[in-house]
Write a structure and sequence with these properties.
InterPro entries: Celegans_DevNeuronal_Protein (IPR052774), ZP-C (IPR055355), ZP_dom (IPR001507)
Organism: Papilio xuthus
Largest sheet: 10 strands, mixed
Pfam families: Zona_pellucida
Shape: globular
Protein name: ZP domain-containing protein
CATH superfamily of one domain: Zona pellucida, ZP-C domain
Number of helices: 2
CATH class of one domain: Mainly Beta
Length: 345
């Protein structure tokens, strides 16, 4: 998708939202015009959001372009590209004949006609520090508390609910690790589960980190959009990875899933307080995350896979099957103990 922005008048610079200084996604400037070329095959590359309608198969791609003006103001332009899905095939259905005494009136008086359509959801993702949004580039020390928020726009928030089913973190190159799997955090110490309080915003706390060879960290998420609400996911450490509201937990995939959204957000992390010990600590945490991802390959498909850190900084992987088996064994031991007591007395 190519987008050309005329740089006339008092327009000074233009860039993609949250990617002001990210060189791989800067526009080409020629003849007083800025041209963005957005790859829709690799839509994560420059943070293009992809929305797939699960019913019609239609795909929508969108991004925001920021334009800074000479007077200090700013324009925001949303660009979209829609790809129509496969047409639905209509099957002929056998219909029972009308009764013999059926009479169709010659004139039908239609007193009212109503038609309504739900809006296509528009999602946003931001990273915050101390409750304030950071615009793509921050300078923090290892372990600085941050939070990520994923939200619906005002028009679609009353209609839909959200569930972050999968998220991956990458250095925008070859290094990549899974941090949310089937709705549950792989390593809650580094990146917590997504939760919600008001139903319109999902939030997860995490600690600032980066890969050794780059300052950019890219988060790639897959978000399920459901009618009204998405059911939470029971994670094996007792936590709930939430969709829209704190309600019942579903045992299977949501039947009211209507959209799947793939979104991306970037942050640039520079260590402002270099400390060899702390750097070593967070390299160790990344190593633990890599180990957890290797474990995922062995238990792929379990809806509740999480990890927890021991006192000696080891990462222990749990799955739902392991927890359930432990619970059954505990219950069996308790029942056996009670039976022995009754037999004794």
């Amino acid at each position: 998708m190519a987008v050309t922005v005329p740089m006339d008048g008092d327009r000074k610079i233009t860039y993609l939202d949250n990617l002001k200084d990210y060189k791989p996604c800067l526009p080409n400037i020629e003849n007083n015009a800025a041209t963005f070329v957005l790859d829709l095959q690799d839509h994560h590359k420059c943070g293009v959001t992809r929305v797939i309608n699960q019913i019609t198969g239609r795909r929508t791609f969108y991004h925001k372009i920021m334009i800074e003006l000479g007077d200090g103001g700013r324009e925001t332009v949303t660009v979209r590209c829609m790809v129509t899905g496969k047409p639905h095939l209509l099957a002929r259905r056998a219909v029972e004949p009308f009764p013999l005494d059926f009479n169709e009136p010659d004139v039908l008086n239609i007193t009212r006609y109503e038609e309504g359509r739900a809006p296509e959801p528009v999602l946003g993702a931001v990273v915050k520090q101390n409750g304030k949004q950071v615009s793509g580039e921050i300078s923090v020390s290892p372990g600085t508390p941050l939070s990520m928020e994923i939200f619906l726009d005002n028009s679609s928030a009353p209609v839909y609910g959200l569930l972050v089913s999968y998220m991956q973190v990458t250095d925008t190159g070859k290094q990549q690790e899974t941090i949310v799997f089937n709705g549950c955090s792989v390593d809650p110490y580094l990146f917590d589960n997504f939760v919600t309080t008001d139903g319109d915003v999902l939030a997860a706390k995490f600690k600032a980190f980066k890969f050794p060879d780059t300052t950019y960290v890219q988060f790639r998420g897959t978000v399920t959009v459901c009618l009204d609400k998405c059911q939470g996911v029971q994670c094996s450490n007792g936590a709930i990875g939430y969709g829209r509201k704190r309600r019942s937990v579903a045992s299977s995939a949501d039947s009211n899933k209507v959209y799947e959204v793939s979104l991306t957000t970037f942050i640039k992390v520079d260590w402002t307080d270099p400390d060899a010990a702390r750097d070593s600590e967070y390299l160790s945490l990344l190593k633990n995350l890599k180990v957890a991802n290797q474990k995922l390959g062995d238990i792929d498909g379990t809806p509740a896979t999480v990890a927890e850190h021991t006192q000696d900084n080891r990462l222990v992987i749990h799955s739902t099957e392991q927890i359930n088996a432990a619970n059954v064994l505990t219950q069996s031991c308790v029942l056996l103990f009670i039976s022995l007591l009754l037999a004794y007395y």
